[in-house]
Amino acid sequence: MRMKTLALVAGLALATAVSGCSTFGSYKVFSSDYGSRTDAGYRLPSIPIYKVPKQYHRQIVAYDGGEKPGTIIVDTTDKFLYFVLPEGQAVRYGIGVGREGFEWKGTARVAAKREWPVWTPPAEMIRRQPELAKYRGGMKPGITNALGARALYLYNKRGDTGYRLHGTPEWASIGKAMSSGCIRLMNQDIIDLYDRAEVGAKVIVR
Predict the structure, then answer these.
(1) Residue numbers annotated as active site
(2) What are φ and ψ of residue 183, in 5° steps?
(3) Which residues pair with residue 151 across a beta bridge?
(4) Residue 126 falls within a domain, yes or no?
(5) Taking the chain, what is the end-to-end CA distance rounded to the nearest angstrom?
(6) In-domain check, residue 132
(7) Burial class of 77 by CB neighbour count within 10 A (0 to 12, 13 to 18, 19+)
(8) pLDDT tens digit string along 149-198?
(9) What contacts 11, CB < 8 A, 6 or more positions away?
(10) Is residue 2 part of a domain?
């Protein structure tokens, strides 16, 4: 019986490793870190985190992906973002990703970081959603802003990708495919990631 159990555990570990991102259990889950707070003069509301599946709560996990610390890995299939730490660990965040037709994969870098950014919808988004034309000159920062409390701007060799890692007031979208390609995190999580990630950090979207 013991041999069968060990074989099952080994098989599960191998299957996870083959998927590209190896994670084995959690060291710490930050479920209590989603309360309200004041940030740069804005009152960030609390998130009813009990309504968010626990796998999407911020947590430190064992990680064996081979990337150097400081790298950001976006797993669009399982809806996780990993910030790689030293010694085989990573901070894992739940994310929302692009809906059907807006998915993307590739490698980029963090070219800039902004606190309480202005959101300017691209022209193609305004064509799809004419009601956004009123924000053509930019949506002012605030609790209802589409980029939330923080944004990390992604560039590649061709320049601005147009994609961001950003906060969202729509916490219920975490774990789902609803965006126009950007990667959404709960506001409390994007603040945490913003404080960890450096300009120039490599971002791999899978």
Answers:
(1) 166, 182
(2) -100, 120
(3) 114, 166
(4) yes
(5) 38
(6) yes
(7) exposed
(8) 999 999 999 999 989 999 999 999 999 988 766 899 999 999 999 999 99
(9) none
(10) no
Question: Which 8-state DSSP code applies to residue 139?
Answer: B
* Residue 12: other Cβ atoms inside 10 A: 11
| Range(s) of the domain holding residue 170 | 20-205
What the block records as the tokens of 179 is 């965006």
Domain count, the chain: 1
Amino acid 112 reads A
How many angstroms separate the most distant Cα atoms in the chain? 66
Residue 39: phi and psi, rounded to 5, are -135, 115
Is 15 a member of any domain? no
Cα–Cα distance measured from residue 182 to residue 59, given in angstroms and rounded to the nearest whole number? 22
Pairing of strands 23-29, 59-63: antiparallel
Report the predicted TM-score, pTM, of the whole model to 2 decimal places: 0.84
